[in-house]
Amino acid sequence: MYHSKIKGLGYYVPENVVTNEDLSKVMETNDEWIQERTGIQERRHVIRGEDTTTSMGVKAAKVAIERAGIAKEDIDFVIFATLSPDYYFPGPGVLVQRDLGLKTVGALDVRNQCSGFVYAISIADQYIKTGMYKNVLVIGSELHSTGLDMTTRGRGVSVIFGDGAGAAILSREEDLSKGILSTHLHSEGQHAEELSLIAPGMGKRWVTDIIADNDPNDESYYPYMNGQFVFKNAVVRFSEVINEGLQANNLQISDINMLVPHQANLRISQFIQQKFKLNDDQVYNNIQKYGNTTAASIPIALTEAWEKGKIKEGDLVVLAAFGSGFTWGSVIIRW
Ligand code: COA
């Protein structure tokens, strides 16, 4: 039995900055409303045609591979988390295998939205723990901007989300006091439609011809979110799953050196921070700059925190996510 540790981290965000002011030119919204409700000041949107979910993931992966000090030939498996794949199928995992020029290693796609990276880390951890793989490339990447309803009708969703990618190399660690200590995953499909994008899905195709009947007024082609319901569930589940992870390892809240929550909404992070009585140095947020990048948010935030020297060897680092499904999870790491 081994542990897995995060050996390299990287992220990539498109250069194109979209401010709240920019959004107010295409829909009825304003900087004050967005900042007060979400903490977001700006987000990145790809320049159309320049980047895809896969290409952003590949760019983030190249940085992570280099920092891990491994050759791409050393990668045994690829796990890609996204809700915004380039193609309906195949998923972006195989596109990364192709674009990075990896040998014919396995590639797995994870469909767990905002919890996607936490689920992907958990899967990679199991493969490494059992000795099946030594190095697993885990990517979270999202291209939201081309799929959002950028009119006043869609403002409750579209002001929140941004584009970007993050990646990690998980590698075998023989010192069992280090690395990922445990992971904890949950779901509650009862609330599946509360944060969802119904079309294009086979369920939708069953009742309508998706190609011929793609009516711009059909809101099922745009993401839907019951914002207040999501908020209420998020704060409860974040707290539960962080506590679950700490208890499983006989750790206390006071042992946390750095909590990197999924960047859903600054108000959610602040609520958790206050509830757990953590100070500003113990929680890392960057939603102000990038919006909610779904599966990419944790690896982007984790990479930034690490780059800024906020995570040191021996630190207890907690990752926690909640999102569409509903799904949620946590990862407890001794860095
Ligand atoms: N700009 C200006 N006004 C907006 C707006 C926008 N972008 N979006 C919605 N509004 C309006 C609404 O139309 C509504 O107007 P009304 O009172 O005249 O009907 C009013 O603002 C309040 O809308 P409501 O949806 O109740 O706002 P809220 O306080 O719940 O905030 C969210 C909305 C989405 C910011 C909030 O619910 C939230 O953050 N939820 C969690 C979302 C999340 O974390 N999602 C990701 C999970 S992984």
UniProtKB/TrEMBL annotation:
Ranges annotated as spanning the membrane: none
EC assignment: 2.3.1.180
All copies of domain Beta-ketoacyl-[acyl-carrier-protein] synthase III C-terminal, residue ranges: 246-335
Catalysed transformations (reactions): malonyl-[ACP] + acetyl-CoA + H(+) = 3-oxobutanoyl-[ACP] + CO2 + CoA
UniProt-annotated catalytic positions: C114, H262, N292
Main location: cytoplasm
Pathway note: Lipid metabolism; fatty acid biosynthesis
Protein name per UniProt: Beta-ketoacyl-[acyl-carrier-protein] synthase III
Species: Flavobacterium sediminilitoris
Gene name of the record: fabH
